[in-house]
Amino acid sequence: MNSKEQFMKEEGTAFPGKTYVETLLKPLFNDQKNHLFDVMFRIHRAHVVMLAEQGILTKQEAKTILTGVNKVAEIDHKTIEYSPEFEDLFFMMEFKIGEEVGSDLAGKMHIARSRNDMGEAMYRLVLRDLLLDGIHQMALLGSVLLEQAEVHLDTILTAHTHTQPAQPTTLGHYLTAIYDVVERDIVRFWNAFETVNRSPMGAAAITTTGFPINRERVCELLGFDGIMENSYDAIGGGDYLLDSATVIITAMTNTGRWVQDFLKFATTEFGILQVADPYVQISSIMPQKRNPVSIEHSRSLASSAVGEALSVVQMIHNTPYGDIVDTEDDLQPHLYRGFEKSSRVFKLMRAVITTMIVDKDKAKQRTYESCITITELADELARHHQVPFRTAHKIASLVANQTMAEKKILSDWKVDEINTIIIEQTGTDAAKLTEKQWQAIICPEMFVRRRSIRGGPNPLEVKRMIATRKVELNSHIKRYQEITSELLKRNEKLMRIKLHS
């Protein structure tokens, strides 16, 4: 027997071949049973109810089918094993329903329906729940960010640009900025939810059906906001997958950036942030280590989630506009994993931020370094002494450069020394500073208090921003609660529907 004959003997001569089973059908079956089992039966129920209400099935036929559907739905999906007798989970479950009600009657369940519109509906139902969970987790994170921002209204912090010390701000100002990014990601998730939460049911294979079905009724029973009207679009469109993927990419890219900041703050050299004991690990050999592994895992999970979502974009890119496996079984697990990893990041960072310990004194001490209040010297000269701003900026630059070169800090300067430089650059003593003015210039707290313009770090302004954002966040939470409650009611109502002969 040659190698081809031996191979074909092991593979078999009919579909599905052994390799096809092991590399595709079995893994896909496991993904389907883990993610699509429950929503499959919800679609069965809604479709059968509609068929009965439209007179396509008799009420008795529908009641019998629903009894079988509900019984099979009680199976623990974890116990189901792949069988080559069935192409996928859908056919296996139809067979099991047929064992309960008869194969002919079970087959009627499939009238005016295709695996195409059913598959799209299942994906949308799952993604709808994943998007809602993401919104919930981000809202919880946002709440903690605002709580800590309020605690740290007066915690002076060095703001960085280009990774270099820039100007004084507060931790409250910084955390509110992170909240703003998270809130925009919540909005993006809502936008994706609106794209996803549309029913493709009734599109059938791609051109609808000759049966007098009611697409709107199935839409209502499944809790969708509306139907995908054009049946070709309902089956061929993949933008709901792209929207789902891109919100993961954006949210995890945004999150990864400030997570990186937290790792920097937690270094011994920086020393501003201490991660609480439940979220650090010690070294196996160096007992002094407090490794902030919770933040490190958050960073790597965020990157991994982006990778999963980018795979979705790549798999859809340049694919035909129609029903294709690229947008079906092979693609969906990337989205499931992307959302799951994103959720883990939100949960981890929420725990870290809730329990973090901030060294306020060290944070404040650092704001006296690197001349980060020197902008105020230029501003003061231009604001109250009518020195042209470019000249004022040059004076501030000279002071900063000399301070750094001599490894000093601004408080080492005497006001008379500063005034000497001012007189040299302006040619007059009209712009001389008083001791009080100089002390205000080098004071990080004063720098922050003077930045009371809308959006600035002044504690009262940050407090105002937090108050408006709490209202904003509560609206997201309320919407989430209303939608999840309504979807639960729709599902319970579907389960309670009684068909009367």
Automatic annotation (TrEMBL):
Compartments where located:
Cytoplasm
- On whether ATP-binding is a keyword of this UniProt record, the answer is no
Q: Please identify the protein, giving its name as recorded.
A: Argininosuccinate lyase
Give the EC class as a word.
lyase
**Pfam families for the chain:** ASL_C2, Lyase_1
Q: Which Gene3D superfamilies match?
A: Fumarase/aspartase (C-terminal domain), Fumarase/aspartase (Central domain), Fumarase/aspartase (N-terminal domain)
- Source domain of life is Bacteria
Q: Which CDD domains does the record associate with it?
A: Argininosuccinate_lyase (cd01359)
Q: In which pathway does it act?
A: Amino-acid biosynthesis; L-arginine biosynthesis; L-arginine from L-ornithine and carbamoyl phosphate: step 3/3
Q: InterPro entries from the xrefs?
A: Arg_succ_lyase_C, Argininosuccinate_lyase, Fumarase/histidase_N, Fumarate_lyase_fam, Fumarate_lyase_N, L-Aspartase-like
Q: Which residues form the Fumarate lyase N-terminal domain?
A: 51-307
- The keyword Transport is annotated on this UniProt entry: no
Signal peptide positions on this chain: none
Q: Where is the Argininosuccinate lyase C-terminal domain?
A: 372-448
**GO: which molecular function terms?**
argininosuccinate lyase activity
Gene of this entry: argH
Family assignment from sequence similarity: Belongs to the lyase 1 family. Argininosuccinate lyase subfamily.
